[in-house]
Design goal:
about 55% helix
């Protein structure tokens, strides 16, 4: 059974990395508890599916750490929203849960490398997501953690409605 990270992991960045890992594992486990058909079926009035939410989380993390903090170009930074942060999430029919898990794992590796080597008070680069007044890495970490926490809760409800795994 997977549990919340324990205290005493070292510095603040180690705790952030541990909680991001915990949230990633949680949302992947929830998605894996559903059959393929339920991954692609909406259970909520806003219309997103569990697979779309998981895909959104992978791209959201990439937007904040790779495109945002590192200021590296990424293909289609708003790839889950058709060019706009306000558009609906979409996952192509050919995209599988394994594909989304791989994208999430790839970004996790990038994020963990940043957190292991960069002081949290370091400002994000300019030229990617930010053109002026970039936030520091600590702010980005808190933003990404709140996105994961919020969406993990959304996914819990959708998975419960679809008959998937609930509880810790």
């Amino acid at each position: 059974m997977r549990g919340e990270p324990a205290p005493g992991l070292g510095g603040e960045a180690a705790h952030v990395a541990a909680y991001l890992g915990y949230y990633r594992a949680t949302v992947v486990a929830r998605a894996r508890s559903l059959p393929e058909e339920a991954l692609r079926r909406t259970m909520v009035p806003s219309g997103w599916t569990p697979l779309e939410l998981l895909h959104h989380l992978a791209l959201m993390e990439r937007r904040w750490f790779t495109w945002g903090f590192l200021a590296e170009p990424v293909p289609e930074p708003w790839g889950d929203s058709q060019g706009s942060p306000d558009a609906a999430w979409r996952v192509p029919a050919r995209t599988s849960l394994a594909d989304v898990e791989a994208l999430l794992a790839e970004q996790a590796t990038r994020t963990e490398a940043v957190l292991a080597t960069t002081p949290l008070d370091t400002l994000a680069g300019v030229g990617g997501r930010f053109t002026t007044d970039p936030p520091d890495l600590r702010w980005i970490c808190f933003h990404v953690l709140q996105e994961y926490a919020r969406h993990a809760g959304h996914l819990d409800v959708a998975v419960e409605l679809a008959g998937g795994q609930t509880g810790e």
